[in-house]
Amino acid sequence: MSVKLRMAGHLIRRLHQVSTHIFTQRMREAGFDLTPVQFAALESLRHNPGTDQAGLAQAVAKDRATIGAVVDRLEQKGLIARSVSQRDKRARVLALTEQGQNTIAAVLPVVEALQRDMLPGLSDAEYAQFIALASKAAEAAETLDTGAG
Length: 149
What we know:
Layout: H1 8-29, H2 36-47, E1 51-52, H3 53-59, H4 64-76, E2 80-84, E3 92-96, H5 98-114, H6 124-141
């Protein structure tokens, strides 16, 4: 008989594993080579073109070193472009390329379709409740120093 852990940290970690697996599998099946963090970066740039790397790191809750590697990979794939900031010549601003815009447009329906699959076993009402509670906790966590920025 297995013991089920009912600790928030364990459950969050387990759901993260499930969501990452489903995301990766569905992206592959749809013919895309994108990780969840790469998708989050593209989606953030879609809504905030001209963001610099520091702003992107904050938007997707990753440290600057991690986001630097993500940006490098997305640039290699031809999905984003960097240019010198007009305000700060040391900074690089980021924008989706035409290929990046086309990719995010093609990927969005896939990502939207897999959301519900990340929480199997929940009724529609429970799913809505989970989203509301997780959003509330995530927003409250924004005020904490998590080291992701």
